[in-house]
Amino acid sequence: MTVPSHIIEMLKKLRARYEAEPIQEQMLPSDAEFTTLRPVRKASEASVEKYWSRLSETASADDRAALADPLTMEAPDRYNANIENFIGTVKVPVGIIGPLRINGLNAHRDFHVPMATTEAALVASYARGAYAATKAGGISTALLYEGVIRTPAFVFDTLLDAGLFVEWVVREIDALKVAAESTTGHGQLVSVEPVIDNNIVFLICRYTTGDAAGQNMVTIATNALCEDIVARCPVAMKTWYIEGNFSGDKKASFLGLVTGRGRKVSASVVLPADVVQSTLGTSVQAMLDYGQVANLGSHLSGQLGAQAHFANGLAAFYIATGQDAACVAESAIGITRMEPRGDDLFCSVTMPNILVGSVGGGTGLPSQSAGLNILGLKGAGKGAALAEVAAAVCLCGEISIVAAIAAGHFTRAHENLARQR
Amino acid sequence: MTVPSHIIEMLKKLRARYEAEPIQEQMLPSDAEFTTLRPVRKASEASVEKYWSRLSETASADDRAALADPLTMEAPDRYNANIENFIGTVKVPVGIIGPLRINGLNAHRDFHVPMATTEAALVASYARGAYAATKAGGISTALLYEGVIRTPAFVFDTLLDAGLFVEWVVREIDALKVAAESTTGHGQLVSVEPVIDNNIVFLICRYTTGDAAGQNMVTIATNALCEDIVARCPVAMKTWYIEGNFSGDKKASFLGLVTGRGRKVSASVVLPADVVQSTLGTSVQAMLDYGQVANLGSHLSGQLGAQAHFANGLAAFYIATGQDAACVAESAIGITRMEPRGDDLFCSVTMPNILVGSVGGGTGLPSQSAGLNILGLKGAGKGAALAEVAAAVCLCGEISIVAAIAAGHFTRAHENLARQR
Amino acid sequence: MTVPSHIIEMLKKLRARYEAEPIQEQMLPSDAEFTTLRPVRKASEASVEKYWSRLSETASADDRAALADPLTMEAPDRYNANIENFIGTVKVPVGIIGPLRINGLNAHRDFHVPMATTEAALVASYARGAYAATKAGGISTALLYEGVIRTPAFVFDTLLDAGLFVEWVVREIDALKVAAESTTGHGQLVSVEPVIDNNIVFLICRYTTGDAAGQNMVTIATNALCEDIVARCPVAMKTWYIEGNFSGDKKASFLGLVTGRGRKVSASVVLPADVVQSTLGTSVQAMLDYGQVANLGSHLSGQLGAQAHFANGLAAFYIATGQDAACVAESAIGITRMEPRGDDLFCSVTMPNILVGSVGGGTGLPSQSAGLNILGLKGAGKGAALAEVAAAVCLCGEISIVAAIAAGHFTRAHENLARQR
Amino acid sequence: MTVPSHIIEMLKKLRARYEAEPIQEQMLPSDAEFTTLRPVRKASEASVEKYWSRLSETASADDRAALADPLTMEAPDRYNANIENFIGTVKVPVGIIGPLRINGLNAHRDFHVPMATTEAALVASYARGAYAATKAGGISTALLYEGVIRTPAFVFDTLLDAGLFVEWVVREIDALKVAAESTTGHGQLVSVEPVIDNNIVFLICRYTTGDAAGQNMVTIATNALCEDIVARCPVAMKTWYIEGNFSGDKKASFLGLVTGRGRKVSASVVLPADVVQSTLGTSVQAMLDYGQVANLGSHLSGQLGAQAHFANGLAAFYIATGQDAACVAESAIGITRMEPRGDDLFCSVTMPNILVGSVGGGTGLPSQSAGLNILGLKGAGKGAALAEVAAAVCLCGEISIVAAIAAGHFTRAHENLARQR
Predict the structure, then answer these.
(1) What HEC string does D316-368 produce?
(2) End-to-end CA distance of chain C
(3) What percent of chain D is predicted at pLDDT more than 70?
(4) Chains B, C: CB contacts under 8 A, how many?
(5) pLDDT class for D420, splitting at 50, 70, 90?
(6) Low-confidence residues of chain B: pLDDT under 70
(7) Active-site hit among B49, B110, B119, B157
(8) How far apart are the C-alpha atoms of D222 and D243, rounded to whole Å?
(9) What ipTM describes this predicted complex?
């Protein structure tokens, strides 16, 4: 049997389905009538009502009550800057961990951290890691670098024109910087690096973005930069695009791993042997042994960097604090290290792509704002600390999961918490 | 100046900070006293109250009201199977798009799709894509493959022992399958593939998981498989781990791209030239031209596959329907293609790692359940259709963003929707 | 200065060049006359003479003598099956290392290994590693897997047709296997795995190839398989290609890392602490410490797997034994591990993509044949052993370079051997 | 059958082998006596003789004659700067292609290009591509960037120390540049970029290397830089390494793809429709259609960039001109593009990691020197042109193979040339 059994298994399933229904027609386009939803930018009680009347075929009154609850409907316009076609809010449960002691360059005290998730065992696991880290004296953190990227692309007829374009851009860089920064009070264009692929030029534009995550800020600034180029550059251009799908926006990329995107933070702690034993129920050596296997697994499966589950901590933290949850895709890469320090265990994470803001995005919504307030990190001047807390939280998660797998507790935790309640 | 300016810029910032405070001490561990939060698995009004009293230093009564609102506090135990240390719920706004016509193997009708996000313009953009696709007759979809992976690792003394172990596993595979499947009524072990790195063996265990996303299911089944191995295998084993960090769980990996993890779905539509013009405000040729540049960008920046922003659609869809938002990290990879078909535009997405369930996880919570009900896809027998809808939604997003960038609308959309309200 | 200095530096150089010459014209196409070389498949003294007369404008009589030397010109037709447009031979110096003791599944004795390179210090370094490994009792090796891949691609109108095609292929797999294997006495089709991207299907066809490297063998067999498909498959096909650029032929790929291509071999040795000290001039701990940093470097720079310089050993071994040197691109990936074993050092390499043959390709040429004879591995029944030797040689190189860098000898070795002679 | 058939097939083979021999003992270390070869740095007739007497057990007099032929033995010391333990030379057949017209920034005329390979059909295929390109008016090329990297690593106790170290390095950068450049008359340190992973700092040191490939040059220069750091830096350092396995030396890496290593060259040509038809036997549309599938294959199999077989051209070119063949591993990545230009076909390659020199390495050896002389590119001032020729040659190969696969000729070419002579 030369074809793998799982393929054959799958085909059997499909075939059963084919036979039940006339598959050919089912997958063809259909020109049946339809009435599209009218777009609504400014939500009101009436607009929400109208949408729900359209949804009544599938959704019940209870469903409507669950999303368009009284608190949400008190002021649906509160969400106008964050969503279109508003029909209510989904309630994601929030758990709290802490105190998590952080001895950071920007974050420097004990924090209670809200985490929003529907996955059992997650909060408990991060809480355990936080407890171990705090018992060990807390986590050292440093924001190492900032640089949100936009990468517009410019298309020319020839390689020569592409080269002449780069020369012009470099010569005009100061004026272009002024154009870009004219659109923002907080962002600064800190680097422009051209990448040429024959007749196409990408400009890697890196910005600091103050306390905001800054994805819109850099788009608008880069647009101004591009329009200034287009207005003044003498080299004939075929076309240009605000983004050449090069920046790694909303996706894992080696560019992000190598050069960073957003905020790059490193966080570490040395766990004394007795803390490992008493709080994590395993030994330093067992964690190191597993670390070697986990590192091998990361290589052989083609991951970007090596880590266990940054995504769990990031998603829960991003949702609870009004960050862009889609950025988990790009943020959840980096390096976790565990090494012996005498009898103790050095643990670190270095995360090159954290995208968080203490202002902007979803941070102003009531419950998200509450999440930031629990941290004490809402508003101006708190962006860097917020990024350091995000990394520290991820370190807690790495410590806890590595300990659990090393000790053989991992499955049991999930059985207990998710299944058997 | 041999050091890049953005590095120097960053150092200046750091130095300013150093000078203001005695940095050395700030980053040292501290043994100040602390009282950790008492873990709570079964939430009650009292437990929530207790936590909030601890949080009162940073959080206000308004913050508490925003998270622990009356509706949430009606029955805090509702969340017991999904979270620990519960303090309330974060409200993520939900917008609706549709109808989205899907002509799929498993999903086959017009859908209204709830999307939860705090990022302005996202819902509007996906709605536009859905409108174009539906006008074109709808999106063809097919679930091509299922296979959630767990990859336990086994450590031996020598390469020879590793080889003998693999031989034993292959010989005993039927019994091991029975052991694994004894833990679940829905999961099936469809493939076991050994990967040897000298003295370490990973077993890639692939499962179908019925209508659940299945991450816990496969962990528990694999644990049973491992325990059966450990009980009976005569080859001396140094140690084993339930997961060798090989499966790609919660992270982007080339293993996932190449072989799939979770559900693999392909979705496509041919957009007639006039639909492109009238609904997307651009031309087929403009979208194709941009597609070539975007593909180049994906290669040069080292992405896994080539796509624009799967993560946006996935995160909004996962949160609105009670899926695991952390899985966005692994799901947001794959391929978007745009090609000419005569004068028209063929568009497809193929997504190898969709992790969704119509049962289990967060799907039973009230507002998440409402999200599934809007789709008409809650409960048994709906998992495959749910995965097809997820892919179709992502295709809508790809169509819309490519059109927006090709037409030069992208920045304007974000300016209008996020900033100028 | 927002543009990196190295970019500016580079532009200055280019500008200097622009100014010297009228750059625009220089890069335009030119329609000046030219006479192309007449292709020659069967070399003769006359054909070689004719080519050299054409080359006399740039090349001297000495140059001709160096390539078209008397030994080469004795029988230029000897090279007919290996090259076209023959003008002579380039002489690559060969050094010898050994004895290298191998305790392998297929290779099992002490070997002297020829290595062809022009890079000083390379042979000395591998010789040192071989000495250490042999002193430690020799290297254990095992060929773990064979599977040279061809991946034809088939293009359909729709996703549905692609699915129907896969179903047909799976049903007809036995007949297709017969078709493929009818072309070869040595190759066997061991697996066919379909990968669907909407309307395009790749078939990953894996073969064992006997004692040959087998790249041509699998091309021809797969062509027969495809022609059988085309002749008999009822699903309407738009077009097909013998290779969809999916197989990883002649290039590094994660597919190769994850699933193997060619022969997968693992090799290991435990170096006693005193051998490390006496033969490598460093300590086990120093090598382990460097190993951790080297592993980090491999992650952060986005390598495929983690290793130091497989390519050096492979290129030298491939050239000396008549293998395809271009395959270094795909073979030079994999994993090197160094771990403590008590006071001693466990070292291993696992290389998933070794492409070697003891027959075919360049193995029959006089000096390449001599290389294989030195190893005692020419001809039928020796392919597996040859692959094991290749991996063992690479392990020697890894041991030596890690020791050199750990001890701080690396630079000195290159200074001495390359520069100061 | 849950285990893939190719695994079972493989195990059967292994088992057959186990049964034949007592496998356990065979793979154990052995302490049998052995006499290692005495290392020889300066070859002489006597040293070569001595080695061959040791090899006589496996190798015949004919083998010896094939490697240690009279021409080689005329002056074995000629190879002293390039190899140790010299026993002769392997003769790699060289074919010639051309004229290849290049309209480059640095290379600007018609070239005849020597290619050394043992793979049939390779030279013929590149010759065909060269003919098509030259008929089209020639290939435009530009050296876009130079920057050979060394990346020393420095290990500290804490993240804070790592930060202080970076600050010191940046402050001292001018002095460090002087230290580095004091070791070389040709190399220039053009950029130093620190990358921090918690307590470990990598310094990405980029150099221009004049006309040499420069790998040794940058090692020696970086060593001087490091020693200056160690001598003067006040931050306590645990250890340092000349190379942190970060530079991508001798291996494919995303760092190299994203930022370049060695010389980055782009080359392009527009092939008129009639040239495609008459010289390549296919159509522009057929090549474009295949290009889309090949691009998809490159994504799905996890390649670095997208190209067909750079490695073939590079290996043949590197060997024929005395370059380091091991560098094929890092050089064989990049981007091939094929796009419509009206009715014609735009083709380009952009190769970020070409490592060639017109001086140094193996370029001074007689037959390698002859290869460079055929090109007219030996010696000072020719390095940049040599890199442009390398890229142009690869473009010829891409054109020819894409045409062959698009036209269905690929298999036939290999059947004819390799098998049926």
Answers:
(1) HHHHHCCCCHHHHHHHCCEEEEEEEECCEEEEEEEEEEECCCCECCCCCCHHH
(2) 44
(3) 97
(4) 79
(5) very low
(6) 1, 20-21, 412-421
(7) B119
(8) 9
(9) 0.96
Could you tell me which residues are beta bridge partners of residue C200? C155, C197
Active site residue C324: yes
Task: Identify the active-site residue in C161, C249, C324, C344.
Answer: C324
Q: How far apart (Å, rounded) are the C-alpha atoms in residues B131 and B400?
A: 10
DSSP element (H, E) containing D412: helix D410-414
pLDDT tens digit sequence for B335-346: 999 999 999 999
Contacts of A5 in chain D (CB under 8 A): 1-5
Integer angstrom CA distances of residue B76 from B92, B366, C186, C359: 18, 12, 68, 73
Structure tokens at C163: 């699915």
Give the residue from B396, B395, B394 showing the smallest Cα distance to B128. B396
3-state secondary structure string, A260-276?
CCEEEEEEEEEECHHHH
Q: Is A82 on the interface with C (CB under 8 A)?
A: no
**3-state DSSP assignment of residue A51:** helix
Cβ contacts of C8 on chain B, cutoff 8 Å: none
Q: C11–A170: do the CB atoms touch at under 8 Å?
A: yes
Q: Do D140 and A163 touch (CB under 8 A)?
A: no
Please answer yes or no on whether C337 and A173 come within 8 Å at the CB atom.
Answer: no
DSSP, collapsed to helix, strand or coil, labels residue B414 as helix
A69 vs B71, B99, B368: nearest CB: B71
The Cα A99–Cα A389 span in angstroms is 12
d(CA B35, CA A38): 53
Q: State the Cα–Cα distance between residues B421 and A42, nearest whole angstrom.
A: 9
Cβ-Cβ contacts under 8 Å, B106 against chain A: 17
Q: Which two tokens stand for residue D179?
A: 């230290």
Q: What is the pTM of this model?
A: 0.96
Residue D266: which of A2, A159, A259 has the nearest Cβ? A159
Residue entry with tokens 């000897």: C78
- Determine the residue among C7, C106, C159 to mutate to test chain B binding: the one whose Cβ has the most chain B Cβ atoms within 10 Å: C159
Helix axes C173-181, C159-171, angle to 10 degrees: 70
Residue D407 burial (CB count, 10 A): 16
By C-alpha distance, which of B84, A418, A257 is closest to D246?
A257
B206 in Cβ contact with B189 (< 8 Å): yes
**In contact, A323 and B319? CB cutoff 8 Å:** no
Cβ–Cβ contact B337 with C under 8 A: yes
**Considering only CB atoms, which chain C residues are within 8 Å of D148?**
none
Taking alpha carbons only, the member of B250, B220, B269 closest to residue B103 is B269
* A245 CA: distance to closest CA in chain D (Å): 14
Give the list of residues 6+ apart from residue C363 with CB closer than 8 angstroms, or none: C321, C322, C323, C357, C369, C372, C378
Nearest to A254 among C160, C296, C302 (CB): C302
What is the spatial distance between Cα B377 and Cα B386, in angstroms, rounded to a whole number? Answer: 6
What residue type is assigned to position A148 of the chain? V
By the 10 Å C-beta count (0-12 exposed, 13-18 middle, 19+ buried), A8 is classed as: middle
Write down the catalytic residue from D119, D167, D193, D339. D119
Whether C414 is catalytic is yes
C119 a catalytic residue: yes
Give every CB contact of residue B141 below 8 A, 6+ residues apart in sequence.
B102, B103, B104, B105, B106, B107, B265, B266, B267, B268, B388, B389, B391, B392
The tens digit of pLDDT for each residue in C20-64 reads 667 778 889 999 999 999 999 999 999 999 999 999 999 999 999
CB B258 within 8 A of CB D302: yes
Q: What size, in residues, is chain A?
A: 421
Question: Nearest 10 degrees: CA dihedral of B243, B246, B249, B251?
Answer: 140
Residue A278: C-alpha distances to residues A410, B36, B325, C405, D303 (Å):
17, 15, 32, 39, 46
